[in-house]
Amino acid sequence: MELPTLKPNAFHQSRPIIPCAQCGDTLFAPEWSEYLDDRRVRHLWCCDACGYEFESMVCYPEPHAA
Ligand SMILES: [Zn+2]
Description:
Blueprint: H1 8-13, E1 18-19, E2 26-27, E3 32-35, E4 40-46, E5 53-59
Antiparallel strand pairs: 1-2, 3-4, 4-5
The structure holds zinc ion.
């Protein structure tokens, strides 16, 4: 009898994943995150491969819209 295992894809889907804007390498976690308000988060990304730094903004939908 085997215990069910979580699929790695399901785990990663809940996290912000973004390709490097410079070299296209996959970045799995932001270097730093700033919460602007309840529904907007700004991530600062730093690429391990090329050292490029850039920002992205994540906007969540209104809570009552779901
Ligand atoms: Zn890069």
